[in-house]
Amino acid sequence: MLCGRIGLGIQRLIQLFSMKSIAVPIKNMENNLLQHSVLLVRNKSDVGVQCSTLNGLETTDCKSDTDEDARQENPDLQISKRKLDGQTGHSKKPKKVKLDPVLTTRPGYTAERFDETSYYIENGLRKVYPYYFTFTTYTKGRWVGRTLMDVFGEEFRAHSSDEYERHIEKGSLTINNERVTADYVLKHNDLLANVVHRHEVPVASGTIDVVHLDDDIVVVNKPSSIPVHPCGRYRHNTVIFVLAKEHGLRDLKTIHRLDRLTSGVLMFGRTQNRARTLEAQIRDRLVNKQYVCRVDGRFPESVECEQPIEVISYKIGVCKVSPSGKQCSTSFQLIGYNEQADISVVLCKPRSGRMHQIRVHLQYLGHPIQNDPLYNDTIFGPEKGRAGNFGKTDKQLVQDLIHAHNAENWSTTDDGFPVLPVADDGLSVLSTAENGGPVKVRATVDVSTQTGIDMPDVGFDEKKLTVDAHCQECKIRYKDPKPSDLVMYLHALKYSGPDWAYETPMPAWADVNWQEP
């Protein structure tokens, strides 16, 4: 019996040592796959295929979230183990993809990309000249098994399904650098590429002031209306590109993000070490954040809101308070109340960083931000979503939001401003020479109202305009938005950590007696 027990013990030890010897290479394999995934993400040309932004509605590829929900922007933090664990229901081994050498050897944003177009300023708006660009992205898990047209028709709202089908037919929309048909079924790790004549949408022309600058970090006072990084219909018209082109600050590392309409403290790492240190502090909730906002009604002296938040639709980026949502907490303190205008200025201290957290909590409390284009709307019900009372299902709410915005052509202009059609006889922008080659001619479209970004003191230059005969955007004349329509009364006032603090001045609208010009 003793010999039997010794034999069993030896056998158990052999099993343990065998498990130990196997675990090491498996771990090494996992690390190698993670490193390979990071490389793929870093080498992607910008972020995703073109998506769109409605007025306050943003697709998942276009959102600028904050803190915890925004760490997906950093490639070193965003790699999901779901792919490694096979939770997507597909093979753990991604298929080999034929990659263009340019895509695999050009990481980040190069001088060539910053110089592909230039800015001008007009009507108080930052604008950019249209330019040719190739959107690239790898297949997302939720796309696998769906047809190419199904994905583009449902998830990307920048153009109509017919327009995307035209891109597929002419070969400007490819998979793994090869032409495909519209019914192509997407596979894991497919590389999608779409060549477009890109038009960007306008943002307010305010300067991006530098709050702090040293060898490790740059902190800016982000204006409202401009996204942090390239997303959707914004690229040169983003903080990252403006800092590179106008301030010479390149190769910045994103630490956190602010929503496109939110202004205030925005930090970028100039070194990887500093960026990772601050990311860790945000992740571990060692960073205190203070925001200021202007809301409807008389706000209580102080409120602590700990309602969980759930994403209703990833497609358009809308959230609500829900028991099944993610836990989060925001404390609010009244700064001042204007009885005549019936508005309050409130200090907000979010202890977590869920998407639209402050905006959703304020809506739930019955005091939405005064000019919030999304959450301060009766489409959420007669009480505008107070106490989570919408009077309709989530599905119906999303349908109503999309329908309301599309009904006013908001999906085309991206910010809710009407589209002015151009007469049919004004659409011809190319003629044919005797030798059959295309000759560029001046477009009859009023391009002074088209979209873009500015360089200070630089006016519109017709010589820098490119016009594409097949580009639908070139055939549409847009009405410029008012700069006041590009501002939301939510401002990141101060961020502070264990041994640092960065703060901006109060925005003008934070004075309770302030009146809109």
UniProtKB/TrEMBL annotation:
<dbReference type="InterPro" id="IPR050188">
    <property type="entry name" value="RluA_PseudoU_synthase"/>
</dbReference>
<comment type="similarity">
    <text>Belongs to the pseudouridine synthase RluA family.</text>
</comment>
<protein>
    <recommendedName>
        <fullName>Pseudouridylate synthase RPUSD2</fullName>
    </recommendedName>
</protein>
<keyword id="KW-0507">mRNA processing</keyword>
<dbReference type="InterPro" id="IPR006224">
    <property type="entry name" value="PsdUridine_synth_RluA-like_CS"/>
</dbReference>
<dbReference type="InterPro" id="IPR020103">
    <property type="entry name" value="PsdUridine_synth_cat_dom_sf"/>
</dbReference>
<dbReference type="GO" id="GO:0003723">
    <property type="term" value="F:RNA binding"/>
</dbReference>
<feature type="active site">
    <location>
        <position position="259"/>
    </location>
</feature>
<comment type="function">
    <text>Pseudouridine synthase that catalyzes pseudouridylation of mRNAs.</text>
</comment>
<dbReference type="InterPro" id="IPR006145">
    <property type="entry name" value="PsdUridine_synth_RsuA/RluA"/>
</dbReference>
<dbReference type="Pfam" id="PF00849">
    <property type="entry name" value="PseudoU_synth_2"/>
</dbReference>
<feature type="compositionally biased region" description="Basic and acidic residues">
    <location>
        <begin position="60"/>
        <end position="74"/>
    </location>
</feature>
<feature type="domain" description="Pseudouridine synthase RsuA/RluA-like">
    <location>
        <begin position="216"/>
        <end position="363"/>
    </location>
</feature>
<keyword id="KW-0597">Phosphoprotein</keyword>
<dbReference type="GO" id="GO:0006397">
    <property type="term" value="P:mRNA processing"/>
</dbReference>
<keyword id="KW-0413">Isomerase</keyword>
<dbReference type="GO" id="GO:0009982">
    <property type="term" value="F:pseudouridine synthase activity"/>
</dbReference>
<dbReference type="InterPro" id="IPR006225">
    <property type="entry name" value="PsdUridine_synth_RluC/D"/>
</dbReference>
<feature type="region of interest" description="Disordered">
    <location>
        <begin position="60"/>
        <end position="99"/>
    </location>
</feature>
<dbReference type="GO" id="GO:0000455">
    <property type="term" value="P:enzyme-directed rRNA pseudouridine synthesis"/>
</dbReference>
